[in-house]
Amino acid sequence: MTPRPGLLITQSFNKKHGEALAAVLQATGLDVEVIRLSNERGATLDEPECERVQIAFLSGDLYPGNFRGFFESLTRCPNLKWVHVFYVGIEGPLWVPLFERGVLLTNSAGANGRYIAQTAIGAVLALSRPFQRWSTAQREHAWHPVPSDQSESPTDLADETMLVVGLGAIGAEVARLAKALGLKVVGIRRSGAGAADVDVLADPSRLDEHLPSANWLVLASPLTEETRGLIDSRRLALLPDGARVLNVSRGAVIDEEALIRELESGRLGGAYLDVFAEEPLPAESPLWDLPDVIISPHNSTASINKDRREAELFFDNLRRWSRGTPLRNQVKSLGIASVGS
Amino acid sequence: MTPRPGLLITQSFNKKHGEALAAVLQATGLDVEVIRLSNERGATLDEPECERVQIAFLSGDLYPGNFRGFFESLTRCPNLKWVHVFYVGIEGPLWVPLFERGVLLTNSAGANGRYIAQTAIGAVLALSRPFQRWSTAQREHAWHPVPSDQSESPTDLADETMLVVGLGAIGAEVARLAKALGLKVVGIRRSGAGAADVDVLADPSRLDEHLPSANWLVLASPLTEETRGLIDSRRLALLPDGARVLNVSRGAVIDEEALIRELESGRLGGAYLDVFAEEPLPAESPLWDLPDVIISPHNSTASINKDRREAELFFDNLRRWSRGTPLRNQVKSLGIASVGS
């Protein structure tokens, strides 16, 4: 008797969403055996289990925890056909072997874009309104309004331009909210597909033309061979004095050392950074202490029911899989392969 | 010879906007003599000057500074006909004598509403996204994402309701931006006049019905006999657990001690406060140190060109005055008369 095909999930995922998964499997009639890998760090599948696994869901409970054991097991599954991943940016050398042997990869793009965008817009308001000033004063129990002589007045978003690089679910939502706040929004997008709520839509080849008027530069693109190192010191220097940089893409998209220099000199006005050249950001990085820099630990997406939205995306794809229809969010190219995810 | 009617401004206003004022006066043909009062604390008009003043602009440069001297001078001007004020909330016993003797009062409603609303929405995002957590971690150079087990995940604005009390320029703009963020918005407004971008519009008599579903309570009404003490301990208790309170109205609209109790006990989830029962907020107030309380020193309006927008409103009214047409932003009732402004 041939063993039933295996569907690999984690124990933690099973505990929270196992019943919902069982209902989906029953409704679709998909004949698979659910294999649950422990979330204990270092737990791996044994060889007979690996043999059976054809589908896997790499869920958020693997961070921090047993990502390594789960992933190492996947690489040993000879019959693996499809992996759904809870995040968006599938990149790095880790994925190359799976991708090259034709394993289908789907990501969770769209599940959390609105939360990342709200974080980014929260940072825009934190940097553009005098919250930093008020917060310092609050810690001192001090009543320090901005002087009425206008010498230290905040800038006006209605006079400013935001340049959004990458108009996927995140970038498009940032653009929409920025326009609601009165900013002029320029969007940079590789493909011309679909409309986005921006004032100007431009091809990546026009990036340099738009940098000198970008009071806000928002990086929301995937990390690919084209975007790696995209914002280098030359391009940072093209930004106007006082410009702010937001990065919710990947650390490798920007020259972090050049950014630090521009922030330390006061030439640039501030930054909101969710991603870094090295993660976790080392304790000795000067970024932590720069006065107008807001740091979130690759966590801009934090939201309630995040796991459920990602599970729903996976379940939707399971239904498609059972019908033989194309899956959502299929990763067509691997992003950059030479940088760790 | 009868002396020419006097238009009273401050020296500081004259320095910055005197030329623009002169151009307006010339264009309108208004025959007035500009009288400039020093911004030095304690400077007042002498009696012959008081005799002449018919129009006055109480400009923002009087805070902090010579508000008292300017105002005291006004009360001694027997021929005073009209005062334009740089702020919105004209209230308190100070104004009663001028109002009662028929001096026309106009305020600067609309000049700064968008900045106050952006501050309020910035506070909504600061409280709803994990910025407080990240900021604490940043000071310690610590990489502390929200745990992936969802135990400490932020709430989702798309599941929440905002109750906006007062739909003037500020409240309406808060409502518009809140809807863009996915909140359901209920607006409380006295008059039925005009449409606002809310999901539900309700009369003040329905306030109590809407409090139990208000995850966010935004106070943006003027201080009047009706709104003084409006949010008392009983009404605060009607809010759901974890609700956040934003006050950009006046301190006297809410029972501050009851609010502090609800915040200290953790029953309410946080607050953004621009205004207080006593201003400046005393250094010993517990509000300064409450973990989810954001304080701005009656300064939510801070913005570049604020003085210019207020001046433009005054100039527009000067043109109307010269033509004998009704002025904009005429104060029809004095707001509450028993609380200091």
What does the secondary structure layout of this molecule look like, with pairings?
The structure is a homodimer of 341-residue chains.
Chain A: E1 6-10, H1 11-28, E2 33-37, H2 47-52, E3 53-58, H3 67-75, E4 82-85, H4 96-100, E5 104-106, H5 113-128, H6 131-139, E6 161-165, H7 169-180, E7 184-188, E8 200-202, H8 207-210, E9 216-219, H9 233-238, E10 244-247, H10 256-264, E11 270-273, E12 293-295, H11 306-323
Parallel strand pairs in A: 1-2, 1-3, 3-4, 4-5, 6-7, 6-9, 7-8, 9-10, 10-11, 11-12
Helix pairs in contact in A: 1-11, 5-7
Explained architecture:
Two copies of one chain form a homodimer. Chain A has helices at residues 11-28, 47-52, 67-75, 96-100, 113-128, 131-139, 169-180, 207-210, 233-238, 256-264, 306-323, and strands spanning 6-10, 33-37, 53-58, 82-85, 104-106, 161-165, 184-188, 200-202, 216-219, 244-247, 270-273, 293-295. The first copy, chain A, has eleven helices and twelve strands. In chain A, helix 1 runs parallel beside helix 11 (306-323) and helix 5 crosses helix 7. Chain A is of the alpha/beta class and 341 residues long. In chain A, the strands form two sheets. In chain A, strands 8-7-6-9-10-11-12 form a seven-stranded parallel beta sheet, covered by helices on one side. In chain A, strands 2-1-3-4-5 form a five-stranded parallel beta sheet. Helices cover 33% and strands 15% of the residues of chain A. In chain A, helix 3 links the parallel strand 3 (53-58) and strand 4 (82-85).
